[in-house]
Design a protein that fits this description.
The chain is mainly alpha-helical. It has one domain. It is 75% helix and 2% strand. It contains 8 helices and 2 strands; from the N terminus they run H-H-H-H-H-H-H-E-E-H. It has a two-stranded antiparallel ribbon. It binds zinc ion.
Length: 203
């Protein structure tokens, strides 16, 4: 019964990621610049929050008990767009929306590096909480970057950018992204437990 409930929740949240992204993309055709920017940013934030909610469910953790991490993911995914203003060098919405430059918060190398530093720190100092923040940063930033990649590609500075990714590939990637993160999380956690156990056995 519990297994069935978890399965239904997985299907609902995975679908919600796809539906939210699709509806958010339709709203990009809105003529009013303010509504377009607000709905686009709200879509990024919601997809970020849903991404972390699904990762929690896949990790067999309660969303309610971890709601602060969902809210954090929501706000980080929204915060990334501050970059458009910084890159444009202006706080005017029109300048930010029409800037050709991409700011560094849109470079995927940055969250990957931050995740790596936090992950290594957590392993060296045995602080699981720190690793958790690393996964939250990685998930919120990359969920945002995947959505933007449909228009501008993924950017891995200083290496370069991929071409814009096709629409339905981006939608599918957004929906399977939480499963990829969860797979990496369980792989790295199991691996480090195995290393610890083998070290204990050796000692
Ligand atoms: Zn963006």
């Amino acid at each position: 019964m519990i297994f069935e409930r978890i399965l239904i929740l997985r299907v609902i949240i995975t679908s919600l990621i796809g539906i939210t992204s699709y509806v958010g993309d339709r709203l990009l055709q809105e003529k009013n610049e303010v509504i377009r920017a607000l709905s686009d940013n709200f879509t990024h934030a919601t997809v970020g929050g849903l991404t972390w909610s699904l990762i929690l469910i896949l990790s067999k953790k309660s969303i309610l008990q971890n709601i602060s991490s969902v809210v954090l993911c929501f706000f980080i995914a929204s915060f990334v767009d501050v970059d458009h203003f910084l890159a444009a060098g202006s706080w005017k919405l029109h300048d930010a929306a029409h800037s050709a430059k991409r700011g560094y918060l849109h470079c995927s190398t940055i969250p990957i590096t931050m995740w790596l530093i936090l992950f290594l720190y957590s392993k060296i100092f045995n602080q699981q909480n720190v690793a958790n923040y690393g996964w939250i940063i990685l998930s919120s930033f990359l969920s945002h970057h995947i959505r933007d990649a449909n228009r501008r590609g993924m950017w891995f500075c200083p290496i370069g950018s991929t071409p814009p990714i096709p629409y339905y590939f981006y939608l599918s990637l957004s929906m399977i992204f939480p499963y990829i993160v969860h797979f990496c999380m369980s792989l790295l956690t199991t691996h480090s437990i195995e290393i610890k156990e083998s070290l204990v056995n050796i000692v």
